[in-house]
Structure formats: C-alpha cells, structure tokens
Recover the amino acids of this structure.
C-alpha cells in the first residue's frame, strides 16, 4: 500500500494559482504516478456509472491518503494524467493560471415524463456566429419520448452568450447529432413511428429545413445518432437502437446497427461497419481528424451502465482516393466512466469524448492526457470548439472553457 502522505495545498500568485504536482490547486490536480497505479487503500471498488473521484473504499479501509486523493480529485476542474495536459490548458511548466470551466447557461428542467435531459446535436455556424444544440428527453418507464419543435441557439455575438429556443421549419423529429458543412447545419434526426429518421439540412439564418436522406433501399434506419461530413461531401453517420430501446418511439428495427458512409454528390450509400459484421453493439458519436484521414466512432453497448458493453472509441483509416474508402478499426481507447457519447477532435490531433462528470482528453496516439470536469452531479454529453473556446453541453448546464487548442474543422 502507498504510504506517501499528501494534502491539498496551493499558493496564491497575483490572483492566480501555482499548480503543484501532488496537490489540488484552484483548478488542477496532477495525479502522482504512485497514487494512480496503486490505489491508496487496501480494499476499494467503483462501478461503471460513477466517477474516478467517487471510488469507494470498502471495509473501513479509509486512511489519510485515500481521503486526500478523493478530495483532490473532487476539488479539481482539471485532472492531469499526462504532462501534455498542461499544454492544453495553457500552463507552462505547471505554473500559471488555470482556465475556468464556466457555466454560462442553466437548462430548465424537462417535462414530468422524463427521467433526465440529454443535450446533443451541437454545431457552430459562422454565418450567424452561433451554436445550435438539440435536446432530448429520455422518458421514464412506461412513457415514450415526445418530439419537441424547438432547438437551442447560443448566440455568441454578446457576452455572456444569449441562449434561446428557436423553431426549425419544418421541425426536426428528435434531433440528435449535428455538424456544419458548407453553409448549412446538418442534423441527424432519430425519427419516430410516423417520421423516418435520417439526415436533415437546416439553413442557420432562416431555420428552414430539408430532408437529405431517410432510407436505404426502402429500409428505415433504426435511430440515426450522430454525423460528420468531410470536405468531399461524404457524410459518416451512426445508427443504433436508441429510438426503439431507449426512447420507445420507433418501429421495430429492420437493419443491423451500424455506421454508414453517404456520398452526397453521387447518392452512394453503404454501411461499412456495425453489428452485422463489426465491433459495434450501439455506435454513437463520430468525428474526423483535421487531415480527414482518421475517423473516430464511439460505442455505447446495450445500456449506458453496461459493464460488459462498448465504452470504446474506435479509430478507422479513411482514404477516398482509391480502394476501400474506410478500413479498420483499431481500438483507440476504452472509457473509464459511463460510455463515450459525443466526440470531437482538435487541430493538434487530440480527441475529446464526453463522460460521466466531464470530458476525457487523449492525444492522437490514444494516450489519455486528462479530464476536464463539469459541475458536481452533472455529465457532459457533447461539445463544440469555437476558436479557442470549448463549449460543453451537459445535462444541466452549458459550459465554456478557454483552451490552448482549436477545433479540427476549418470554416
């Protein structure tokens, strides 16, 4: 058992905080190697849905070290697991001002039939200098999710940004994933029993919508979940059983869950990986790197709290010039808390994935750099870069954090 004692400490310097490697500062905790690899208690456990900082010490084995570790992890806004995390948060040599993870909007509570809110489908439009964000209400037992006619718009032309509900026309049916492409916001809508799911294009200024894709040879998709589009007008989107299994809103699935490649110029559509012959039970988030030669896809599993489920990010190789356009996958990472839902990349190749309690960050080799935490009790679902600001959509709040990074997408 580890015997090195440590306590939280920090030194104020002109209103900022000096970061210490073995102590939580006013924002950053650098987990010492010996405490990361050998937990400082003789008996402990942690289930799938809890956070690292909620690890339970069992059988009365709490001690000074385990209590201090838990407190430091709880108090920090940034958990450092690799020195590369300091570059991301803009601290040179571990000394300097850590940025704040700032709540800029509190989402109102959902209707009585819901058990939680899910904010997904986030995308930035330079035409309006605003972010669009969908909202879903996973229902309580015995209910199904009722479509809502509005989405959130975060207007960045004021500070703090103005967040308001706006109404696409015609309305989206359970808007989930979203991406920006050549002047339009492309939403994935899950659909329901009366409206097939698929891809819907929205003008960010007029909010007028147009269905782009809603079938494969007459088959409905199951519950399309997330989308990204490359510079060659090729869309990649995920399709799972969420509407049928989680939301109780769609017809019985007729296709295997999977990930699809849609050439918008030619209409060619193919499923290139999925439950029919690949690693996915329920694919979820999807993102491209800056060079658009790597595709990242998250896997949920049967449920969010399934210990034997996905909880995995896969990396695929993309080559649209010759041969099979998408090959792989390679396991990029396995997530420690919940499952990776929304996923984004930055211009340096880092990968960001939502998690219970915050956003996990990896470098392009799959080495985890750290965790950006949200408020206690909240979870991140999706995120969007605008310049150096990362906007994080939680279940309860919208957050903004200024990073030494920019998103991979060029506008």
């Amino acid at each position: 058992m580890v015997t090195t004692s440590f306590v939280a400490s920090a030194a104020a310097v002109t209103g900022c905080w000096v970061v210490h490697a073995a102590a939580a500062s006013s924002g950053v905790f650098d987990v010492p190697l010996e405490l990361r690899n050998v937990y400082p208690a003789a008996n402990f456990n942690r289930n799938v849905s809890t956070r690292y900082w909620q690890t339970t010490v069992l059988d009365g084995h709490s001690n000074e070290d385990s209590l201090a570790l838990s407190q430091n992890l709880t108090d920090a806004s940034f958990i450092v697991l690799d020195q590369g995390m300091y570059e991301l948060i803009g601290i040179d040599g571990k000394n300097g001002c850590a940025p704040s993870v700032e709540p800029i909007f509190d989402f109102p509570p959902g209707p009585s039939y819901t058990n939680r809110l899910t904010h997904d489908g986030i995308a930035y439009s330079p035409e309006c200098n605003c972010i669009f964000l969908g909202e879903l209400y996973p229902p309580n037992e015995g209910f199904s999710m009722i479509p809502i006619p509005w989405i959130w718009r975060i207007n960045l032309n004021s500070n703090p940004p103005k967040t308001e509900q706006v109404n696409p026309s015609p309305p989206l049916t359970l808007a989930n994933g979203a991406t920006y492409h050549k002047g339009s916001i492309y939403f994935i809508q899950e659909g329901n029993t009366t409206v097939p799911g698929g891809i819907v294009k929205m003008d960010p200024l007029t909010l007028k919508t147009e269905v782009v894709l809603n079938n494969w040879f007459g088959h409905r998709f199951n519950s399309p979940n997330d989308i990204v589009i490359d510079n060659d007008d090729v869309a990649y989107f995920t399709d799972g059983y969420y509407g049928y299994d989680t939301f109780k809103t769609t017809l019985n699935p007729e296709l295997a869950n999977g990930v699809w490649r849609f050439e918008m110029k030619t209409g060619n559509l193919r499923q290139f990986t999925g439950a029919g012959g690949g690693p996915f039970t329920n694919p979820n988030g999807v993102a491209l790197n800056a060079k658009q030669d790597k595709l990242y896809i998250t896997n949920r599993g049967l449920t969010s709290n399934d210990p034997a489920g996905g909880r995995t990010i896969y990396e695929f190789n993309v080559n649209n010039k010759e041969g099979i356009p998408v090959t792989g996958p390679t396991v990029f990472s396995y997530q420690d808390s919940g499952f990776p839902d929304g996923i984004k990349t930055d211009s340096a190749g880092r990968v960001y994935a939502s998690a219970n309690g915050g956003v996990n960050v990896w470098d392009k080799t799959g080495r985890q750099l750290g965790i950006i935490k949200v408020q206690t009790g909240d979870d991140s679902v999706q995120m969007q870069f605008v310049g150096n600001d990362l906007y994080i959509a939680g279940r309860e709040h919208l957050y903004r954090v200024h990073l030494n990074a920019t998103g991979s997408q060029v506008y």
Summary: Residues 64-75 form the longest helix (12 residues). Confidence is low (pLDDT under 50) at residues 1-25. The radius of gyration is 21 Å.
